[in-house]
Design goal:
Blueprint (H helix, E strand, L loop, with lengths): L3 H4 L12 H4 L4 H7 L6 E4 L6 H12 L2 E6 L5 H14 L2 E6 L6 H13 L2 E7 L3 H4 L2 H4 L3 E4 L5 H13 L10 E3 L1 H10 L4 H14 L9 E3 L1 H8 L11 H15 L3 H13 L3 H16 L4 H17 L5 H12 L6 H14 L60 H21 L1
Parallel strand pairs: 1-4, 1-5, 2-3, 3-4, 6-7
Helix pairs in contact: 5-6, 9-10, 9-11, 10-12, 11-12, 13-14, 13-15, 14-17, 15-16, 15-17, 16-17
């Protein structure tokens, strides 16, 4: 009766879905396992992206005993049992879920066991460990951020589950429609646990078609089992990206009615994370410095929407869309950083000028570090003419101000004033 997501947990690193920056050959966790030099760690990231899977795979690859506890619900006595097992049989890998909720009593008990290496703790959390986890625990662990799974990762996991006759659904004659598979992979926002559990429900609750002898899973069945509607039943799923693109282009073009229409389609599909991410991008990419407060209000609206959830989330989202639509627009910030990145990626960087280099160490003056630096606050208007860019780029300009909004108009005025001061110094 174990759910599919549980049964499909990997037993070695090669079976982990995604997270290649950590588990691929040559990467940090793979190197730790290969060298048999495991240390306690904290894995953090959204739900369902592989924290438990990585812990399970590490245990399987090393053949150490593997135990799972929850920092919020399991007691100090449960930790004591794991510690006794470690004393008797050697190293134990302990997956401690919700580690951000570990209280002081449990922490004090656990610390010496982490120090001597009898317990290799793998803490799992959705919270930022640099904020939510006690420094005493942090200092004894390595912290690794897990990334949301890509659609290709989830499609690979679906295929693996359908083919595996031992742990998966390989003994069922499943015919999964291509559009249904894409919707399944896309609609759960990278949560593989939800994908696999939805797939299993669809397979086991759908009767075999008498004519084909197959369990035919259409997009309607997948929608029902994961409770997420698809935007359209197009075979390749392009409509999902088309609607997101149309939302951004409508806001960029200041067409409030069109933007609300595409927002409504995304709301109906239940795509709250997609909507929130796209609106934040629009706030900073398309409105930007023309109206920075609109971007700030968008972030506030998104935070409200995430706390409210649907259906009420539609209200702050509509506020944000209307605000962004009718705001003045400027793409000067994204254009400026992309121009700077283009130079860096083309190898146009050069040495940091000596007078800007760090001088807070003994012997820096002998190396001429920071010697001729001029402190702007000591000069009128908190400005003094000195070179900041490397020699190779000293005449380069990345920021090209626009004057579509009051705020950037003020920035442009200041920018032009500084350019005039530079010209006067050169005369």
């Amino acid at each position: 009766m174990q759910p599919l997501a549980y049964r499909m947990r990997p037993t070695k690193l090669e079976e982990v879905v995604g997270q290649k920056h950590l588990v691929a050959p040559g990467q940090i966790i793979h190197r730790m396992v290969e060298a048999k030099m495991l240390s306690s760690m904290i894995l953090y990231g959204p739900p369902g992206i592989g924290k438990t899977s990585i812990a399970s795979a590490i245990a399987g690859s090393t053949r150490y005993a593997f135990r799972m506890l929850n920092a919020a619900t399991d007691t100090k006595k449960d930790l004591q049992i794991v510690a006794e097992e470690a004393k008797m049989s050697g190293t134990v890998i302990l997956l401690l879920d919700e580690i951000h909720r570990l209280d002081k009593t449990k922490q004090d008990f656990l610390l010496p066991h982490l120090e001597n290496g009898r317990i290799i703790m793998i803490g799992a959390t959705t919270e930022n460990p640099y904020i939510s986890i006690n420094p005493a625990i942090r200092s004894r662990t390595q912290i690794f951020e897990l990334k949301p799974l890509a659609q290709t990762d989830i499609l690979e996991a679906i295929e693996r589950a359908l083919a595996d006759s031992e742990k998966g659904l390989g003994n069922y004659p499943v015919q999964l429609d291509e559009a249904a598979k894409i919707h399944l992979a896309r609609s759960t926002n990278g949560d593989l646990r939800s994908v696999l559990n939805g797939l299993e429900l669809a397979v086991k609750s759908t009767p075999i078609d008498e004519q084909t002898g197959k369990i035919e899973l259409s997009i309607d069945i997948i929608e029902s089992c994961i409770q997420k509607k698809a935007l359209t039943h197009d075979k390749d799923g392009d409509a999902h990206y088309d609607v997101i693109s149309a939302l951004q282009k409508s806001i960029r073009g200041s067409d409030v009615d069109a933007a609300l229409h595409y927002l409504a389609r995304l709301i109906e599909a239940g795509d709250l994370p997609i909507i929130c991410r796209r609106l934040m991008v629009i706030g900073y990419e398309d409105v930007g410095l023309a109206n920075p407060q609109a971007a700030a209000r968008t972030v506030s609206a998104i935070q409200a929407a995430e706390k409210l959830g649907f259906p009420e989330a539609r209200i702050p989202l509509a506020n944000a869309v209307i605000d962004l639509c009718l705001s003045p627009k400027s793409n000067s910030a994204i254009s400026a950083i992309d121009a700077a990145l283009a130079d860096v990626r083309a190898g146009k960087s050069g040495e940091v000028p000596d007078h800007l280099r760090d001088s807070h160490y003994q012997g820096a003056k002998k190396l001429n570090r920071g010697v001729d630096y001029l402190y702007p606050h000591a000069y009128p208007n908190a400005w003094v003419d000195q070179q900041y860019l490397p020699d190779k780029l000293k005449n380069q300009h990345y920021y090209q101000p626009k004057v579509t909004g009051k705020y950037e108009h003020a920035l442009a005025t200041r920018y032009q004033q500084i350019q005039e001061w530079k010209k006067q110094k050169k005369r």
